[in-house]
Write a structure and sequence with these properties.
Keywords: Nucleus, Repeat, WD repeat. This is TBL3 protein. GO terms for molecular function: U3 snoRNA binding. The chain is an all-alpha fold. It contains 8 helices and no strands.
């Protein structure tokens, strides 16, 4: 019977998730946005990534800070953010943040690099009607 082992594993995963949530909250409070972005992306939390982007844009020099943080993300993280911003862009409340992130990606990535992103074709097709 492996029920007890599975329950312990599930409990450990839940505890780890809670710890990451707390760490994310602390990072946002401390305004350590790059680490917060990375953690939110790794947790696959588009809404949390959007919250971090909004927090960055509220700062003085927010656009510049957003560019600095997005530019420092790894390629896989940028791909994830591109996927997230497609969804954000369809909602008028979040479209400005989506456009700011999209602008940053277009400024700092070469067209050839962007073409290497997984799902870029569908992302562009989804962005065109709303952009």
């Amino acid at each position: 019977d492996v029920t007890e082992i599975e329950e312990k594993e599930a409990q450990a995963k839940q505890e780890e998730q809670i710890m990451k949530e707390q760490e994310l909250s602390n990072l946002l409070h401390e305004k350590r946005y790059l680490k917060a972005l990375g953690l939110a992306i790794s947790l696959d939390r588009p809404h949390t990534v959007l919250t971090v982007v909004k927090a960055i844009l509220k700062e003085p020099e927010g656009r510049r800070h957003l560019e600095e943080n997005i530019a420092r993300l790894r390629k896989d993280q940028k791909e994830a953010v591109l996927g997230f911003l497609v969804t954000w862009n369809t909602n008028s409340r979040n479209c400005h943040e989506a456009q700011a992130v999209l602008e940053t990606l277009l400024k700092h990535e070469t067209p050839d690099d962007l073409l290497q992103f997984s799902g870029v074709k569908s992302a562009v097709e989804s962005l065109l009607p709303y952009t």
